[in-house]
Backbone:
């Protein structure tokens, strides 16, 4: 009786969630992200990342994979007792011992805020060569795990690992059975990052059309970036009707990494009209989150990393500098403050032009008459042409040498 009522309430909540014009963002920086070879994040580092993700407004945080090690279990347990706001989840294979470990690890979290993310390989390659399980056995293992997990969790996600290489008929049957058993969300994982956006859209539409009880569960997607398509695939999945997108900060994760949270949410926000839905993420938190994750993991952010790379708002090229000073929109897709970056930075170098040199001199309170500008400009250009270090000595006259002049005026003009 209680179970039947409980089920009805859950279905109602899920249907309400599906009607919201929101894409739910699930972050797996602390699970798939820290799976990057050689990465070790301290408990304090994990805590700071999880707190920052919670403040930024993610829907859920995957805290780790408790069965992986005793330390992982202990860390998840501490964070489950401290982090409040998002749903907190942990990864688990469809093994009784894993489910137990996840239940223990998440016990400090309130029941309506804790979740388990069960996963099992569904593709032929995974079933035959890794698991040695038939299709029926895979379904049975998943259904049993959902039943076991129901004792400790109200929110149960079941992910099909390597879903993108799984026979669609079997995949749909798998989802139907786990939803019938009580899964509140299902996961579609492009585990090896092989899909294109068009294939992604077909796969997602296939699930929505062919899984008869899909209204009773949210559909989550998880993309890897092996072909550089993780963000594009995530967006294609949103257009096709996925409810949850799983991401990592800076796109860190196995091999080429996961879909980068900052890329997905900024694209959703800038093209809200196209997607019809946006995320609840505070975009101004993105730069800080990126730096925090880089610092805690030791994985530096490439300077040209979309959205959060150091060069996104810096330029040395004279034509770009001149345009940016006149109107930052000339050479920027969005203003730096949107993502919490400091501002436009005009770097002085041999490719710089008069506008940037003048702006730099004015910012430093130095004479900026035409002749002053010309003198510095020629020094910059000459220095590099001759490639003689002695020529660079004159550059010392310019404060910060070739360092950047921050163009706060240009930034705030937007
Ligand atoms: Mn993954």
Residues:
């Amino acid at each position: 009786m209680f179970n039947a009522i409980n089920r009805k309430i859950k279905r109602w909540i899920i249907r309400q969630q599906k009607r919201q014009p929101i894409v739910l963002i699930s972050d797996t920086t602390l699970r798939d992200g820290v799976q990057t070879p050689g990465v070790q994040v301290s408990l304090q580092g994990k805590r700071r990342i999880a707190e920052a993700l919670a403040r930024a407004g993610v829907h859920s945080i995957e805290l780790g994979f408790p069965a992986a090690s005793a330390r992982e279990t202990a860390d998840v347990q501490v964070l489950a007792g401290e982090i409040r706001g998002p749903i907190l989840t942990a990864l688990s294979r469809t093994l009784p011992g894993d489910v137990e470990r996840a239940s223990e690890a998440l016990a400090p979290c309130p029941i309506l805020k804790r979740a388990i993310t069960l996963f099992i390989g569904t593709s032929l390659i995974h079933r035959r060569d890794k698991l040695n399980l038939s299709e029926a056995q895979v379904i049975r293992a998943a259904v049993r795990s959902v039943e076991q997990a129901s004792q400790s969790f109200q929110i149960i996600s079941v992910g099909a690992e390597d879903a993108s290489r799984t026979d669609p008929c079997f995949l749909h049957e798998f989802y139907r059975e786990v939803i019938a058993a009580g899964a509140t969300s299902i996961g579609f994982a492009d585990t090896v990052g092989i899909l294109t956006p068009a294939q992604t859209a077909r796969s997602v539409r296939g699930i929505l059309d062919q899984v008869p009880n899909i209204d009773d569960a949210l559909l989550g997607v998880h993309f890897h970036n092996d072909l550089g398509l993780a963000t594009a695939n995530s967006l294609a999945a949103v257009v096709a009707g996925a409810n949850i997108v799983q991401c990592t900060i800076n796109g860190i994760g196995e091999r080429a990494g996961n879909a980068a949270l900052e890329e997905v949410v900024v694209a959703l926000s800038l093209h809200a009209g196209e997607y019809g839905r946006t995320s609840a993420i505070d975009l101004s938190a993105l730069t800080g989150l990126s730096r925090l994750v880089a610092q805690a993991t030791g994985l530096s952010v490439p300077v040209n990393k979309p959205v959060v790379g150091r060069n996104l708002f810096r330029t040395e090229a004279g034509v770009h500098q001149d345009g940016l000073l006149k109107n930052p929109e000339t050479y920027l897709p969005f203003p730096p403050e949107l993502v919490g970056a400091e501002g436009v930075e005009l770097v002085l170098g041999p490719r710089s032009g008069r506008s940037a040199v003048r702006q730099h001199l004015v910012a430093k309170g130095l004479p900026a008459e035409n002749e002053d500008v010309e003198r510095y400009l020629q020094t910059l250009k000459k220095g590099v042409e001759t490639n003689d270090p002695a020529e660079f000595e004159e550059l010392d006259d310019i404060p910060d040498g070739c360092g950047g002049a921050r163009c706060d005026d240009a930034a705030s003009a937007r």
User: Anything to note?
Assistant: Confidence is low (pLDDT under 50) at residues 385-393, 398-414. Residues 2-297 form a domain with the TIM Barrel fold (CATH 3.20.20.70).
